[in-house]
Write a structure and sequence with these properties.
There is one protein chain. The protein has 15 helices and 23 strands. The protein is α/β, with parallel strands linked by helices. It has three domains: 65 residues, 3-Layer(aba) Sandwich (Udp-n-acetylmuramoylalanyl-d-glutamate--2,6- Diaminopimelate Ligase, Chain: A, domain 1); 226 residues, Mur-like, catalytic domain (UDP-N-acetylmuramoyl-L-alanine:D-glutamate ligase, 3-Layer(aba) Sandwich); 153 residues, Mur ligase, C-terminal domain (Protein-Tyrosine Phosphatase, Chain A). The strands form four sheets. An eleven-stranded mixed beta sheet has the order 8-7-6-9-5-10-11-12-13-14-15, with helices on both faces. Strands 16-17-21-18-19-20 form a six-stranded mixed beta sheet, sandwiched between helices. A hairpin with a 4-residue loop joins strand 13 and strand 14. Helix 2 packs parallel to helix 4 and helix 3 packs across helix 9. The termini are far apart. The protein binds ligand UAG, adenosine-5'-triphosphate (ATP), 2,6-diaminopimelic acid (API) and magnesium ion (MG). The site of adenosine-5'-triphosphate (ATP) has 23 residues, from helix 3, helix 9 and helix 11. Catalyzes the addition of meso-diaminopimelic acid to the nucleotide precursor UDP-N-acetylmuramoyl-L-alanyl-D-glutamate (UMAG) in the biosynthesis of bacterial cell-wall peptidoglycan. It is an enzyme of class 6 (ligase). It comes from Thermoflexibacter ruber. Its cofactor is Mg(2+).
Length: 476
């Protein structure tokens, strides 16, 4: 440390380009660059304090002026310090709310969206932080992230508290955990849905990915609930050394909250929960887990069981999750955000289970660029194994060449599936081709982009909406 800490600061910043007179700049190491390189830039722009983890970075600063008079604070981990500073700067908003977070590879958006809708129906003012959008009760705030950065997150929570929200449901991504975006946040409850293959580009190994998810539970306080899916083999791992109150849910093993699938159709699920049989508007056994987790969280938050089930049974799925479009000629399209091997397998198995048997299943799927490349051949293989026809196409190519992504996917196409597989780079053309192929009653699964209303190519988001395009194609 160098200089006095009883200093009035204007804003906390971790991007030198945003620093203004009187701000504190936190130098965070990133993947593309290192915030420590921008300390002199931050001081030039008026930073009065610098938080850093690499003292050596100061050596590159111009001598003589005592770092422009800025106070220097060395910490062990700048990203974690940023999280705690952001919480303090906004007066610890998470402590003023009942904040429940969920982590897991799949099911987070579904869970928080339904919890948000359920608690609004129960009469509360509710906040939502999700991949699709953030909400302060009915006000929609667009987002580019599943979990916002520490400053955005605390700013949003502070607004929610100010507007008298009582409950907030948020997704906690593994990126956010690894980058300490949620350091300093106090939760009333933490949930774990599942962990399967994804994001190995970022975490490198499955063990590291698991460790990131576990951080959420390791940092939980005693009075918070820790609710995990016990049927996932890593569910109980989350609870190891977790100080929170342990609770489990499961379909196939002993657990505190249990459900049984009575029926699973295209339209929805009938479940038996706590001796009550209830129909829900979500289809697929994976959604039985989401619904049970939602029910358990609501009960742990003190809500009445039968009221919760009654309301939950009328709630619609989140946008782009098993979202159905039925065409004039009775062709069914299902728009689904399945962008991992497990999600794609689950959705296709659900289609296989609930179909009558005569119709064809046509799958249109792509994989995102600048994301885990190892999932590409696996997803192509799953699509081929569980569909009658497959069209491999682009998702969000980002900064990669779409053809290179498709080459990776093609490696997973089994030899005996080559004849039924087409490769079409242009996603719109791929969708049109699927519609052209389909006969009445056939099912087209459009996987990967769900609710997204853009296609991201070389840094630009072009308008693109799977559901809108399919609706138009099926009507024409
Ligand atoms: C992989 C990832 O998470 N990257 C995030 C990360 O970027 P980065 O590590 O590359 O940062 P960097 O560009 O190297 O910069 C390092 C530091 O220097 C600072 N800097 C940089 C340049 C400069 O001139 N001055 C300056 O101070 C930056 O502000 C930053 O603090 O930090 C950036 C700033 O916070 C984020 O915008 C960026 O998100 C990128 C855009 C992203 O796409 N993230 C995705 C993968 C993501 O987070 N997804 C998860 C959901 C995933 C899932 O579960 O499905 C999410 O929660 O949304
Ligand atoms: N509990 C579940 N288990 C496995 N697959 C699921 C589950 N819930 C949903 N899915 C599948 O995963 C897809 C994504 O679901 P959802 O958006 O709820 O997950 P998410 O965890 O929020 O994903 P992201 O990490 O991208 O934010 C769905 O479209 C569906 O195909
Ligand atoms: N939150 C996920 C979303 C993936 C969605 C898919 N459409 C893609 O672009 O890969 C991610 O950032 O990896
Ligand atoms: Mg999500």
């Amino acid at each position: 440390m160098q200089g006095a800490t009883d200093l009035v600061i204007n804003q906390v910043r971790f991007d030198s380009r945003k620093v203004q007179q009187g701000d504190v700049f936190v130098a965070v190491k990133g993947l593309q660059s290192d915030g420590h390189q921008f300390i002199s830039k931050a001081i030039e722009s008026g930073a009065v304090a610098i938080v850093l983890e690499e003292q050596n970075a100061l050596k590159t600063l111009p001598e003589g002026e005592g770092f422009g008079g800025a106070v220097i604070i060395k910490v062990q981990n700048s990203a974690a310090a940023l999280g705690m500073m952001a919480s303090n700067f906004y007066d610890n908003p998470s402590e003023k709310l009942k904040l429940v977070g969920i982590t897991g590879t799949n099911g987070k958006t579904t869970t928080v969206t339904l919890l948000y809708r359920l608690f609004r129906e129960l009469g509360y003012k509710v906040g939502l932080i999700s991949t699709i959008e953030n909400r302060i009760d009915e006000e929609v705030i667009p987002t580019n992230y599943t979990t916002p950065d520490a400053l955005e997150l605390n700013k949003l929570l502070a607004l929610m508290a100010e507007r008298k929200c009582t409950h907030v449901f948020m997704e906690v991504s593994s990126h956010a955990l690894a980058q300490h975006r949620v350091a300093g946040i106090k939760y009333s409850g933490a949930m774990f849905s599942n962990i399967t293959h994804d994001h190995l580009d970022f975490h490198k190994t499955f063990a590291e990915y698991l460790k990131a998810k576990k951080m959420f539970f390791d940092n939980l306080e005693e009075n918070a609930f820790a609710l995990v899916n016990k049927d996932d083999k890593n569910g109980l791992v989350m609870l190891q050394n977790c100080k929170g109150k342990h609770h489990t849910f499961a379909l196939n093993s002993m657990a505190d909250f249990k459900a049984k699938i009575i029926a699973n159709t295209f339209e929805g699920l009938e479940l038996e929960i706590d001796n009550q049989r209830v129909w829900f508007k979500l289809s697929g056994s994976f959604n039985a887990y989401n619904l049970l987790g939602i029910y358990a969280a609501a009960v742990l938050l003190g809500e009445e069981k039968s009221k919760v089930l009654e309301i939950l049974s009328n709630i619609e799925p989140a946008a782009g999750r098993f979202d159905k479009v039925i065409g004039k000629n009775k062709v069914f399209a299902i728009i689904d955000y399945a962008h991992t091997p497990d999600a794609l397998k689950n959705v296709l198995e659900n289609i296989q289970k609930t179909r009558t048997g005569k119709e064809k299943v046509i799958t249109v799927v792509g994989c995102g660029g600048n994301r885990d490349a190892t999932k590409r051949p696996i997803m192509a293989k799953i699509a081929c194994e569980l569909s009658d026809k497959v069209i491999l196409t682009s998702d969000n190519p980002r900064f990669e060449e779409p053809e290179a992504i498709l080459e990776d996917m093609k490696k997973g196409v089994p030899q005996d599936a080559e004849d039924k597989t087409l490769v079409m780079t242009d996603r719109k053309e791929a969708l049109a081709e699927a519609v052209k192929m389909a006969q009445p009653n056939d099912i087209i699964l459009v996987a990967g982009k769900g609710h997204e209303n853009y296609q991201e190519i070389k840094g630009i988001k072009y308008p693109f909406d799977d559901k809108k395009i399919m609706s138009e194609l099926l009507e024409s």
